[in-house]
Amino acid sequence: MREPRWARRQLVEFRDHAVRMLIGVMKHNGLQGAMIMSVAEGLGRRADTVDRQVRRLEVDCGRRAGVMTGERQRLWFLKLANRELQYANESL
After folding, report:
1. Which pLDDT score, from 0 to 100, does residue 28 have?
2. Which of 7, 11, 26, 56 could make an SS bond with 3 (beta carbons 3.0 to 4.6 A apart)?
3. Which domains are seen in the chain, by residue range?
4. Cα–Cα dist 20/15, whole Å
């Protein structure tokens, strides 16, 4: 049985808060790998998942080069619309 939407939303907010706290602590310490493993264990997640979330948040904050989450979603929708238009043109 799936979790209700409000429960999933709370889990996402909790995860985002934990990742933001981790980034704040990592600014002051250089033990990034050990901290990520510790936080991952506390969240019940894999260390590479938490590391990916940290990197994504750093990109969204402008600390790391890359495509921001909002831009990535926009590109995904544009590609989807483009595919649908190409399919419609082929059928004409």
Report:
1. 66
2. 7
3. 5-67 (1.10.10.10)
4. 9
Say yes or no to pLDDT of 7 above 60.
Answer: no
Over residues 24-75, the pLDDT tens digits come to: 777 666 667 777 888 788 878 788 888 888 888 888 878 788 888 889 899 9
Which tokens belong to 25? 């602590």
DSSP secondary structure, the chain, as one string = -PPPHHHHHHHHHHHHHHHHHHHHHHHH-S-HHHHHHHHHHHHT--HHHHHHHHHHHHHHHTSS-S--HHHHHHHHHHHHHHHHHHHHHHH-
